[in-house]
Amino acid sequence: MKPNLTSRRWRARFKLVHATAAAWLLLGGLTVSSQADILYVSNSGNNTIQKFTSAGVGSVFANTGLASPSGLAFDRAGSLYVANAGANTIVKFTGGVGAIFANGVSSTLLTPRGLAFDSAGLLLYAANQGGASIYKFDSVGNPTLFAGGTSGNLSSPRSLAFDSAGNIFAASFGNDTIQKFSSNGVRSVFGVFPSAPFGLAVDSAGNLYVSGFFANAIYKYTRDGFFSTFTSSGLSNPGGLAFDSAGNLYAANQGNNTIEKFSSTGIDLGPFVSAGLNMPQFLAFTTDDDRPLLLTPVLSTKKSGTNVVVSWTVGGTLLSSTNVTGTYSPVGGSPTSPFTNSPTGASQFFRVRLP
Q: 27, 44, 182, 266: which has the highest count of C-beta atoms within 10 A?
């Protein structure tokens, strides 16, 4: 039986796993991984980074060198970057040891908040709340102004999030808008928000989720900008948002010091954790070997006659395909580097080595 694919681009749900010294991307929901998601939380109230297992067991990841920690982002090597809002710095933790990655003197950081890596995992972007700007940093911390002033139309920006096409979204807290920037910095207003947008997260289908800090709600924007309420349950001044590998959405509740968990359809699954939290700000997930969940090549598959064409955007080498059963989901973007394979089974399994 041929794959049930159309001419639209498709991507299967993915899970990063670690095999020997290489990282692999497995598509299709086809392989059960022994790994579990690990949640990191920045606590601005007690200047710590808390770490939680998938079962909710917590431990302190870092409690020194932090001043009102905010945004969190993992690079491809598993190092954690923290926006140190109270000290106007970004701190990088490698193997649990922190060091200054960027500071206000060299990059004019003023109360940095949200952090995000681009889809290639190469450039770190920081929302500069005090400077109403977005800076980007190379691998050694050299800064470049990406957006700011009238060109950015930013007001107290909080979170940042990338979609699969390389666009970056910014939650402009001070003027109740969601700003969208193309990869070369061209700005547009993606949405006018009800009240004080804070956290941002993009799901596997390219929908954007935004937490309303004062509205105690989370809203959903489709890729075309259509707006709806995702949930208004269990929230108290929600800040940072993050998806786990199963598609559940987590929200940092600053008002009651909890992390609330929601299903992909918005069902409130209750507080995930509360112990050790003190004004939780931002969230980030990794696998249990510190591989970032979201820094993956953007892949797609499409039907072309009797062939399945597989494409990706971030380097990598397609190693193999096997006839197994899987489920595909829509994806946006413009993948490159195609590989064509003639299907003989119900679906296809694709394995890619990251660069």
A: 27
CA distance linking residue 75 with residue 169, whole number of Å: 19
- Other C-beta atoms closer than 10 Å to the C-beta of 211 total 31
Q: For residue 301, give both structure tokens.
A: 């598959």
As beta bridge partners, residue 218 has 211, 231
Among residues 171, 149, 152, 151, the alpha carbon closest in space to that of 160 is found at 171
Q: What is the mean pLDDT of each run of 10 residues along the chain (355 residues)?
A: 30 27 30 61 97 94 96 90 96 94 83 90 91 93 86 89 90 95 90 93 90 97 90 98 91 98 96 96 82 53 72 60 51 60 61 52
**Residue 131 to residue 154: CA distance in whole angstroms:** 9
Locate all alpha helices (DSSP H) within 88-200, ordered by sequence. Answer: 104-107, 149-152
List, in order, residues 6 or more apart from 349 with CB less than 8 Å away: 26, 27, 28, 30, 320, 321, 322, 323, 324, 326
E runs forming strands in 138-206: 143-148, 157-162, 168-172, 177-181, 187-192, 197-202
- How many other C-beta atoms are found inside a 10 Å radius of the C-beta of residue 7? 8
Instruction: Tell me if the pTM is above 0.85.
Output: no
Residue 63: which of 273, 243, 278, 225 has the closest Cα? 278
